[in-house]
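Ticket #4471: structure export looks truncated?
Reporter: QA, pipeline team
Priority: medium

Steps to reproduce: submit the single chain below to the structure queue and open the exported record.
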Amino acid sequence: MFNIAIDGFVGSGKSTLSTEIAKRLNLKALDTGAIYRGIACYYLKLNLPNPNDEIINKFVSNLNVEIKFVENIQNVIVNGENFTNMLRDENTSMMASLISPYKMIRNKVRLLQQKFASENDCIIEGRDIGTDVLPNAQVKLFLTGNATIRAKRRFLQIKDKPNSPTYEEILEDLNLRDYRDTHREVAPLKPAKDAIIIDSTNMNLEEMINYCVDIIKSKMGKTK
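Actual output as written to the record:
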C-alpha cells in the first residue's frame, strides 16, 4: 500500500488538504482528529469528570470505535452511536484535546489507523502519523503556520454558527492546544526526521494542494 502521513498544528489545514489531495490522486483519506473527537463525544455523553489515568483506563476498557465511509463521508461510531454530526462542536474539540494525550486512547486509535493503512492506498492526517503511527509511510508532510493566521482561519470557518467563540478565545485555545500537543509525554507533535515541512502562513489552499500533489506524484513515480 502507498501511505501518506500528514501531521501538523491545529488549524494548519491538514483535514482540508488531505481531503483534496485524496480526490485528485484517487486515494482514501482518514481524518484522525475526527476519531478522537468521536471518542470525546462519547466521553461527554457519559458526563464523566475531567480525565485522569483511572477514569481513562476504565473508559477505554468498554470502548468500541468504528470508522465507516458513507457516500465518501467519514463517519465515527462509538459504542454503536454515530457522532459524526457533533464532531466540530467546540466543546468536543476541547475534550478531545484533554483525552488524546492518554496512552490507552492513543493506542486504541493507532490500531484503527494502522489497519486502515494496511488495507488502502491512503492519506492519514493527525499529530503523530509520521513519527509514531506510520513511520514507514512513503511520504511524510508536516504543516505549520503562524498561530494568529491559523486562529483567523478557524474563526472565519465557524463565526456564523450559534454560540461560536470569539477570535481571541480561539487564539487562546489554539495556543493552549499547541502547547499540549508539543509537550505531551506520549507521541508529542513534532516533524518526522524525513518529513517535508510546509509553512501554510502565506499559502492559499490551492497553492498548498498543488505543491503537495507534485511531491506525492514524484514519490509515487519512484515506487513504481
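Status: closed, not a bug. The export was complete when the record was re-opened. Leaving a note from the reviewer for reference: The chain is about 50% helix and 15% strand.
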